[in-house]
Amino acid sequence: MKQKIVILTSILFITVCITRDARAQWVKTPGSGRAVTCLMASGPNLFAGIDSSVFLSTNSGTSWTPINSGLPKDYGVETFAASGTDLYVALFGSGVFHSTNSGTNWMTTNSTSYVYSLAVNGSNLYAGGMGVRITTNNGTGWTETGSGLPSSAISCLAVSGANLFAGAGGPMFVAVGAFLSTDKGTRWSPVNNGLTNSGVDCFAVSGSNLFAGTYGGGVFLSTNSGTNWSEVNNGLANLLIRAFAVSDGGGIIFVGTEGGVFSSSNNGTSWMEVNTGLTDLHVTALAVSRMDLIAGTDTSGVWRLPLADFGDGVPQSSESGATDLRIYPNPASGLITLRGVPSDVRRIAISNMLGVDVVDVSGAEKPGGMSHNSEITLDLSRLPAGPYFLRIQAATGSVLRKVVRE
User: On the CB side of 164, how many CA atoms lie within 13 Å of its CA?
Assistant: First the structure.
């Protein structure tokens, strides 16, 4: 027989001014208060290049560990790339290094010293410097790719299906636009029709859509592999683009600029500013890590913003078997019912937009012996109206959902 467990919790909360349309705030991660040059999420791991060191977080930035064994000192971290268990980092003036154990140890490769961008396509690793080089054996040997590229620094690389894109531009490089190779770098051709700003500093791929971020011209979109570009800057208050990130479901595009972070749920047709709580608006890097958007800044380290606030464009159940979790009614003025809670649940919490827990069911209060189809009822009636985050922690992972108190 299906169990039904009703939990009425005593709620102790800090009075917070929350409106119905309030959004979560950025929170600075501890121990990262320096210049961030690059970020990369790979499975459960989040990597950050901070000044001239590489750092690892396994909890979306809650804590950081330096991982620099085998790396030379005092070389700026340029960029990351990952392929399965192979991790790569490029250091300014010292080339590309390779790790097979999540950065615990690094080994040098025989790359050129100055590498500004990396991309992986199958067993091929591409390195953008003065031109593009390719290795098929983790850096033991490198080959210069073919003709058609300009004799200038390649600031960004992107892979979309069988297509390889290279961009040259940004604040530090000569602006020469975007280039396409359909044969793994053997030949390159310019793809700049409609690209009215040639200072391409970053790319993002979302399905069949290719986004180019330019330094001064904003964001451009191509839906046909670069054959044509269109400017998509409506609502984008700053056109100095430094970084992109794409939600795991592809429904939300994030852009980091020298005026903060903006999001779009309609492929750039319109953009919305998402800077509440972010005190350093000079954003240099972005990544999506688990259930958070991560931003690196020029002088203030790494910041984190919950993705659940962005609604249906972001998968809100990602790390456990509770993909069939149902919450109803939602919005609610009193009781909400959770159906399909994992059988190995350890904690259920509801937090406000500042991350303060206002409902917490754990420890001795945890319901025991529940089947996967158990129903749990929580009482929201004593909470102020507004949006909240529901987090379910189980032995097999976590689930984060947005709930609204009417």
Answer: 27
Number of domains the chain is built from: 2
Asked if residue 317 lies in contact with residue 390, where contact means CB atoms within 8 angstroms, the answer is no
Q: pLDDT tens across 207-226, in order? A: 899 999 999 999 999 999 99
The last residue of one of the domains, among 283, 313, 343, is 313
Residue 147: count of CB within 10 angstroms of its CB: 10
Query: What is the per-residue pLDDT across 158-199, written as a single tens digit (0 to 9) for each?
Result: 999 999 999 988 777 888 999 999 999 999 999 999 999 999
Per-residue model confidence (pLDDT) at position 297: 97
Please tell me the distance from the alpha carbon of residue 265 to that of residue 314, in angstroms, as a whole number: 10
> For the segment 18-71, what is each residue's pLDDT rounded down to a tens digit?
333 345 789 999 877 789 999 999 988 999 999 889 999 998 898 999 999 999
Cis, bond preceding 331 (omega within 30 deg of 0)? yes
Both tokens of 247, joined, read 């939600």
Domain that holds residue 346: 4-22+317-405
Within this chain, do residues 84 and 122 fall inside the same structural domain, yes or no?
yes
Q: Are residues 300 and 357 in the same domain?
A: no
In the chain, the N- to C-terminal Cα span, in Å, equals 33
What pTM was computed for the model? 0.76
The answer to whether 252 and 209 are in contact (CB under 8 A) is no
Contact by Cβ (8 Å): 208, 223 = yes
In a shared domain, residues 291 and 375:
no
The domain boundary, picked from 313, 338, 357, lies at: 313
